[in-house]
Amino acid sequence: MKATELFHKYPLAGNTWDEMYDEERVRSHYQNVFNSLSSIPADELSKKEELAKGLFMSQGITFTVYSSGEGIEKIFPFDIIPRIITASEWDFIERGIKQRLRALNLFLKDVYHQQFSLKDGIVPIDLIYSCPHYLREMQGVNVPHDIYVHIAGIDLIRDHDGTFYVLEDNLRTPSGVSYMIENREITKRIFPDLIPQNYVRPVTQYPNILYNNLMSLSPGQVSSPNVVLLTPGIYNSAYFEHTTLARLMGIELVEGRDLVVENHKVYMKTTAGLRQVDVIYRRVDDDFLDPLVFNPQSVLGVSGIMSAYRKGNVAIVNAVGNGVADDKAIYVYVPEMIRYYLNEEPILKNVPTYQLEKPDEREHVLKNINKMVVKKTNGSGGYGMLMGHAASEEEIDDYKKEILKAPREFIAQPVISLSNAPCYVNGKAQPRRIDLRPFALCGPNGIEIVPGGLTRVALKEGSLVVNSSQGGGSKDTWVLAK
Amino acid sequence: MLSRVADSLYWMSRYMERTDSILRMLKINYASSQDSPEDFSWQPVLRIFGSLDDDAVSDLDNNGRKVLQYMVLDRDNPNSVFNMVTIARENARGVQDNITTELWKCLNEFYHVVREERLKYALQFEDPVTVLDALIKECMIYFGVTDITMFRGEGLCFMNVGKYMERAIQSADILDVKLSNLSYDLDKPTDTAYWKYLLMSISGYSLYLKRYQSGFEARNVIDQVLFNVDFPRSVLYSLNQLTRYFERLKGEQNQEGFAKVQFMIGKLRSKVQYSNVQSVSRIGLHDYLTEITTEIDDIGSTLNKYYFAYS
């Protein structure tokens, strides 16, 4: 196969933003990569794809699927063609996310303290109390520096005209940042020199920024705080990420069974006895954190950790109870929050969202369900969604019944097409849908967003669902310096 | 260091030592089975390292290829290379932030190697020595990577404690297997090849030739495997190393546990240091070897109680 055929007959989808092509013309920020990739013979590209797979496998950047008692290592699919974001696009995204996070942080503090915004009718009060992630255990609890969201992974998508929209705010335990870091390392290996030639901004500083933020949260006067990362353990599909972050930050990776609470202080069990823990970056969900307070069945958490937290003897990252702010029904009110708390106009747009609890909106959605995506307000990972345009009559009828049973638990959004980016599929460049999850870190000195993020790809042709649990993959994400 | 981490490092290291040792033992036994099939039996190997009942052992006995399949790849044999590498890697996976990435990568790659479909075929139809050599090479990479990259801290001490405890047990066991073939009669005439293979399986052949300069004599072989302090697989050498790395764990904390384990190691080491082939023959070799392995197991339980208990 000849080299130039990679992008030959690239099928442009109608009414969809393509990251690389503006009609027939290659966008200027993709030109360099287009030229480089076009000069590589197709069988070389397939070898590079194999090399990438081999590198993920040998480094153990895998998750384990257990079937018939034996573990099988799987790779999160990686597409070799990078996704490129211009400096000006990034500037816009960065300002938009910072603004949104400032408002969301203020909202969380407000909800768990005086509740001004609820009293002023900015967010309906019953929506808060009916949210399963609102935790009354957090009411009146002070957290260090009033920061609730230390790490956010806000998902962005682009509509047909290229406008960025916020799809969801992930404020609990967003994952994927290790792929931002590792995908870049893989690109360095498979495309030598390509990154320096394109002035791509680095992403390696992420663990340092996070580490400094974690250190700054230490309660009390401790000269060298003991910071740990709490993982659910090796059976968790994101375990690779936990171990990578712990290693890159030089902090101890602990499991619930390594910790014990005594006299409202958290300790870890070491070969030299108990050692106090000051800051916990936890990757265990709220519900499993403390069997005495939340799910009593949990073996992943630590009994008594909430009492230590409430007394301020340990800092927990992200704060407990954040789910009330990234609930899909409360999402609707984020633009209002920005106006209310910051007196600014929102920079990033929300996807128009219908709340099925409201009778008129519900009626509208049910009538136009073929054009809608219906989601559970507390769902994630692409589970339990209804894609109206693709579902059968029967699926729609079943789903409608579910909605009518508990309308509070559903929202609907018009189908947003998501932008396309070229992906290497079967020896050719093919358009596939993508989103973008940049990772924002909030510390006492403000919000920092590492230039890059996780670009997720819907690898199935025509699919709009990018979640890894639904056959999605990822790309290296470049933010250009100029 | 977290107790769980120390525990995982200790077991990772023990399983890798055992893997290496079993692979070498298999290689030599296989070679020996090709030499003199009429006096060769796989039974001692299967008895010591396998978990089969007597009927299954006699079924396998004269089928070397099947024994190799069982010892290398069998999913139901807890001591198969497949299972040991999987466990070692699983332990490493849980403590990746406490070992170097190079070490993790090496174990992860070994884990993928023992999963290759081709291995089964090769072990059945091709030259098994090539297969075993390839696996032994993976072990040597592991030891090299550990030595070159691992930081000299508490973690490496626990790894070495595990490694030398396991090595002492393995050397004692391998000797026991061989001696049981002779019914522990040191004067029973044997083929030269018999001792040669034993020494080769524990890389002690060259040293033996230099040191003892005689033909193969059971007493000299026993002397080397148990008491020769220059021989890295001798029981005494292993106990000396065990002492050395355990002493490094001494600190302000956990003095009670340290004292207990130190006493047990010291006692065992003295016992071996102040024995020789004659005194051991009087006690009975099998009993003596069993005492050694039992005492090492006790040291393991005490370590577990004072250093590794976390759940």
TrEMBL record, chain A:
Gene3D superfamilies: 3.30.1490.270, 3.40.50.11290. Residues 82-458 form the Circularly permuted ATP-grasp type domain. InterPro entries: ATP-dep_Glu-Cys_Ligase-2, CP_ATPgrasp_2, UCP005522. It holds the Pfam family CP_ATPgrasp_2. PANTHER family: BLR5612 PROTEIN, SLL1039 PROTEIN. This is Circularly permuted type 2 ATP-grasp protein. It comes from Chryseolinea lacunae. The lineage of its organism: Bacteria, Pseudomonadati, Bacteroidota, Cytophagia, Cytophagales.
From TrEMBL, chain B:
Residues 1-308 form the DUF403 domain. InterPro entries: ATP-dep_Glu-Cys_Ligase-2, DUF403. This is Alpha-E domain-containing protein.
